[in-house]
Amino acid sequence: MERKTLDLWVGLFVVAGLAAVLVLAMKVGNLSTFNMSESYELKADFGNIGGLKARAPVKSAGVVVGRVTNISFDNASYRARVTMVVDKRYQFPKDTFAKILTAGLLGEQYIGLDPGGDEVNLKSGDNIAKTEPAMVLESLISKFMFDKAADGDAKK
Amino acid sequence: MPSENLVEIQELNFTYDVRPVLQGINMHFPRGKVVAIMGLSGCGKTTLLRLIGGQLKPSSGQVQVAGQTIHTLDREGLFRMRRRMGMLFQFGALYTDMSVFDNVAFQMREHTDLPESLIRDLVLLKLEAVGLRGAHNLMPTELSGGMARRVALARAIALDPMLMLYDEPFAGLDTISLGVIGNLIRHLNDALGATSIVVTHDVQESLKIVDYIYFMSEGRVIAEGTPDELRAADTGFVHQFVHGEIDGPMPFHYPGAGYAEDLALDVAHA
Amino acid sequence: MLERAITGIRGTGHRVVNGVWRLGYASRFFLAVLLHSSMSFRRFHLTIKEIYFSGVLSLIIILVSGLFVGMVLGLQGYETLQKYGSESALGTLVALSLVRELGPVLAALLFASRAGSAITAEIGLMKATEQISAMEMMAVDPIARVVAPRFWAGVISMPLLAAMFSATGVFGGYLIGVVLIGVDEGQFWSQMQAAVDFRQDVMNGVIKSCVFGVAITAIALFEGYDAPPTAEGVSHATTRTVVTSALAVLALDFILTAFMFRGL
Ligand SMILES: Nc1ncnc2c1ncn2[C@@H]1O[C@H](COP(=O)(O)OP(=O)(O)O)[C@@H](O)[C@H]1O
Ligand SMILES: [Mg+2]
Fold first, then answer.
1. pLDDT tens digit string along C25-38?
2. Is there a single domain that holds both residue A76 and residue A5?
3. I need a labelling partner for B112 at 20 to 30 A (CA). Which of A141, B68, B226, C97 fits?
4. Domain containing A98: what range?
5. Number of domains in chain A
6. Is the pLDDT of residue C163 over 50?
7. Looking at beta carbons, which residues of chain C come within 8 Å of B90?
8. What is the fold, at CATH topology level, of the domain defined by B5-232?
């Protein structure tokens, strides 16, 4: 085959391949929605993190604002210490509430931030004081049963 | 002496694993001559060519080409030496993914910085020498056996080698192609001022074109001489071989092990 | 009886020694390929030609398979997810399975059987017809001229093919899930984007397919170069290429997955 035709085909092939990577990054992945380059770090201690994992999303009002970067166990307080990075564009007051929530019934766990009313915003390296631990499935089920029972009682 | 002989083989022994293939070979190939090495299949002719080309290392003894001992050369030196050798393989060994033209141009492109226009002229010249200039656009699969052999010949002489090695150039050719190749070998040798070593078992054709002949059997040289001397010999191996008699001093049956391996070898060449 | 046992043990020993010897031989071959790679880049058109043969010519099978695998994922995923009322997670399921596992692995298996076997057969035949010998006699190093360009072509093609496989697969899942079944389009994409992380998922998939590309082409080239110079030898070598590289891909996938996603 002519070298020029060959070059053309291979060129098209490489461009198509790179385009596929780009599609995977932008359309399939989160590269377009969340940019880690401009971010600040927050910490939060939880009594129980359930199934939360590193790289889990941090959301506020349903919008992804950051990611969990590290989870460790604090030997002094016997609590889980979660480190997360949050996009610089989003600022939260000092008394923000951090909860571990579950997407859907069996979905993955993420951190939800409920902004409070404080004048001062959280800075990089700050600790979120107000936290709520993860709902563990067992307690979730017992709560559900209890509610059902209470419902039944009420109807009677 | 070294200036007179391009290739000198001294007390050469070669062993595959434990089986001796060549034993105590002494040969010399004077510059400008066409020398034939003859013998039955499996007697070690191809092995000998590979030793000359440096693809195998001797178990003992040595091969000298242009005053240099082949097996002591490093890779660089060996490659430099091989650029001045041309080898015609038994079945041509044309590069099947390239056209006839690109096959002949291969070495020029690999080893020289010649401009493409000059390469084109040179390639057509080489193809003209073997009478296949018109076939330069064909692919190797579109060639007959004789044509493929001629293209391979044109490819082997691409860089005007000083030493040409031919491995069974006549095998599997019809009588006309056979004569054509025979004449080409002789004429190219004389035109290039090269030295040629022709490995063959085609006695009649080689007697016509060569200056000197070595006969080998089971890894040894058993007779040597000019064509006239050999034709005159009326007894022994040479007579049997030259006149194509089945029975004679040259045993028809080899020892069992050798036979089996020979069969394996024939498959390998197919 | 005792004799039988001894023969058996000797046979096993022989096989083990042979295997180890071959592995060492293969590593040396691989090293030689890496050391003689400069020509593949200096004369890049040699590599381009091989990218055409192993990459461009594998494109059809990769795209068609990717599309179908994605469509099957769409159907099966929907069937399962809708039982839990979470069919909006279909995009996540399709994309994560493709980007992390199925894309790299299936593309690699297809690549092994389409391009790997062709490489082995080609090199094996070149050796059987003495083309490799002829090249050596022309003072051209066949490792640098023939083997290395094919190696780098494979290493370049594989991740691109895997990415195209995953991308068409996601499109196939979209066709079935959104266009045919009617899952909400916005949820399909947004849930996918929320769950698929660029570095963690996409890049790890690309790294996987690079490793597979190295493994498959190295195996294919070695088998071809090492094949006995006969028709039978070449055909056996071709079969071995497909079997060995399939096993290598699956084993490597396990190891890589363990390292990447479990943080072992
Ligand atoms: N790669 C090899 N390994 C072991 N033995 C070989 C090999 N190649 C050739 N032989 C043996 O060496 C002997 C000489 O072979 P060769 O030189 O090819 O003979 P021929 O005269 O037909 O060209 C044969 O008996 C063959 O069995
Ligand atoms: Mg031979």
1. 999 999 999 999 99
2. no
3. B68
4. 39-142
5. 2
6. yes
7. 130
8. Rossmann fold (3.40.50)
